[in-house]
Amino acid sequence: MKLVNLQWWWPLAFCAAATLFSCQRTPETAAIDPLVKPPMPGAEPAFAEWTFLAEEGSSETQPSGTRICIPPYAFVDQDGNQVYGPVTVRYREMHDGVSIFLAGIPMDYQDGQFTTAGSFDIRAFQENQALRLAEGDAISVQMASFEEGEDYNFFFLDENEARAWEDLGTNRPLINSEKVALAKKIERMKPGLAFPLNRKYMAFNYDAILDMYYKNSTTKVDNELVHRDMEAYGLGWVETGVHEWITFKGETQNAALMVWKNLDGNAFPEWTKTLWGYIKLEKDNDYVYSIKDKKSGQEFSVRLRAIMPLSTLFAFSPEKWKNEYDAIMAKIEEETQRMEMMASVMRSFEVSELGIYNWDKLMKESDRVLVDADFTWPVEVNEGLSNIEVVLITGDNKGVVKYPSYSWDALALVPDPNARFFAVLPGNRIAIYPPADFKTIDFEGLRQHVDPAPYLFGMKATSKALKTEAEVREFLQI
């Protein structure tokens, strides 16, 4: 039985060697038929590598946020001899169905199929010779996971003896505090104003704008220049007046000399021009401006928010405001992309063997629909294709179901309209049942048949070989 110590927290000090592990396997031997077989050589997920001294151990953080802690003197060679000197660790993690499929990792367990919350593969080498962990030692891994559910178990893939997944138990995921902190940082970075301003931002009248723009020296007014700059600032104005003074950020300001935001978005009626209204504090920097035409009895009110004094806006040119805003937004975009790469939760554990691990749960089987499947292929099916295997990746890109040719007369189809249904052809080509056609399958009608209903899948193929994971994802539209 594979032993594992599931951790509830990540140790702050350097990881000490685990003492709870006593069971070790015999040295691995090459299997005649490898259990893990990448279906498209060259397109499988790549390993990250780092080298360190075996007697010093290592603590490494992946771009996803995964943390790997290896204690000193953790490795032995295949004969059980303690390893010293440089050791190279190769590590990769797969977070979705596409990457797991391309890695060649099986997703069947007993009589069901897995849906994943994340998988990783960890190996160690010295001078290209595979190593294993010393008896009693373990590697601590706090793996980043993009699935927050608590109903996932931890599995180890025995590639040699049992040639199957071993269930190692479960553990509650922890919120990724680094991602939470980064999200708060990004929120604080956001500028109070987008620039240029939009037409919801206004001053009360053009005369006030001129006073502030020319700093009360309006002997030589260039109206064309003023209008051009106001457009660059994104500032509009209305031809109404206001008498009151307000308190803004602890200082008394003339309401007529402020930049305001029209919270309601209601345009000032034509009849308000040249009239004077009054403003009343609602809360914080929000006010209600009201105006009435005594002759006609017409009334208008609108909610406004004080943004800044006009003098503050005009203290910098539109170009400087724009450059500062663009620089802030570029930094926000950079940090946002970094945050999106970080997982929502962390799943902690210690492992006493090198190899492939997965956080999984079983797909629901009750919805499966049996069909007697037949296929039209874009190439001639000859001996080279006699062992063709059809693959379904679920619409959430978390599950992979494989259908070997001997199962096609009773193919258990997953009724997921967003799934991708395809097969790998020789030469790294893919034949797919068009996603738009898969969406139109009448699963309920097929379910009514006592025996599997015949169904013909017309497959469409790539015109060239797909050489990378990115090319596969682009073709599958995942």
What does this structure look like?
The chain is elongated, with a radius of gyration of 33 Å. It is α+β, with helices and mostly antiparallel strands and 478 residues long. Helices cover 18% and strands 36% of the residues. Helix 2 (177-189) packs antiparallel against helix 6 (318-341). The strands form 7 sheets. Strands 2, 6, 7, 8, 9, 12, 13 and 25 form an 8-stranded antiparallel sheet that branches.
Short synopsis of the structure:
This protein is of the alpha+beta class and 478 residues long.
Any descriptors?
478 residues, Chondroitinase Ac, Chain A, domain 3, disordered N terminus, 7-stranded mixed β-sheet, 8-stranded antiparallel β-sheet
Report the span from N to C terminus.
37 Å
Total domains:
3
Portion in strands: 35-45%
| CATH architecture label of the largest domain | Sandwich
Residues in helices, as a percent range: 10-25%
Tell me the number of helical segments per DSSP (H or I, 4 or more residues long): 9
Total count of strands: 33
Describe the main β-sheet briefly: 8 strands, antiparallel
- CATH topology type of the largest domain: Chondroitinase Ac, Chain A, domain 3
Mean pLDDT: 86
Apparent shape: elongated
CATH class of the largest domain: Mainly Beta
User: Using only CA atoms, what is the Rg?
Assistant: 33 Å
Low-confidence stretches: 1-31
- Look at the helices and sheets and give the structural class: alpha+beta
Question: How are the elements arranged and paired?
Answer:
Elements lengths: L3 E2 L42 E6 L4 E4 L5 E4 L4 E2 L9 E9 L2 H7 L4 E2 L2 E15 L2 E2 L1 E2 L5 E7 L7 E6 L5 E7 L3 E2 L1 H13 L11 E3 L2 H8 L9 H11 L2 E2 L3 E2 L2 E4 L2 E4 L3 E5 L13 E8 L2 E7 L6 E11 H5 L3 H24 L3 E7 L3 E8 L6 E8 L12 E5 L6 E5 L6 E3 L6 E6 L3 E5 L1 H5 L3 H5 L5 E6 L1 E2 L7 H8 L2
Parallel strand pairs: 15-16, 17-21, 26-32
Antiparallel strand pairs: 1-24, 2-6, 3-4, 4-11, 5-10, 6-8, 7-8, 8-9, 8-25, 11-24, 12-13, 12-25, 14-24, 15-20, 18-19, 20-23, 21-22, 22-23, 26-29, 27-28, 27-30, 30-31, 31-33
Helix pairs in contact: 2-6
